[in-house]
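Handout, section B. The chain below has 187 residues.
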Amino acid sequence: MRTQFTVFIAITALVVGCGTSPPTGIDQAVIDQPAQFAAKPANGNGFDQFGYNYNARLFNGPADGVDKKLDGTVWGDATYGRDRLKMTWSKGWDDARFNGALWGPDAWEDNQWNGALRGGSGETWHYKIVWVGPELENGPYWRDGGYAIWGQFEVILSHGTVRDAEGVVRHIWETHADPAGYGANTN
């Protein structure tokens, strides 16, 4: 299940992150999936019926809505459909993803996943992802301790909790880069 969640969260982040002018090295088939993500708010509070508020650069709601289908699943998988998800992304990320701007060091996104609720997956995760450029580890924006994803991005923070086979909740630190904050970083 852990591997499944890692793949899912990567796709979730891609939905917010890598669209109209994708960096090289990102699978175009995955990028093309969220072409319908320009929905208008369905109510007066800025959020659409799925949980997106593009003006605030925020998704907040049941994970079921992240795929733009309110069917109790996330991309057809019911494992995480009842979990809660909060995603935020920077203006730099928004400009590159939705408005054709170049990707730059001020592009970042944050995923906070909560499945520790009745009927949820039982997992919790926090991911911070930043654009670092195609040079990855050899570029000026790379942070020690992170890992590469999608050809031009770095996961600078990844930790969460899972229940093991014995039912014990385990806290897992996958990565904690230095520094783990957002914004342009030059090493």
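Note. Residues 2-176 form one domain. Compare this with the example in section A.
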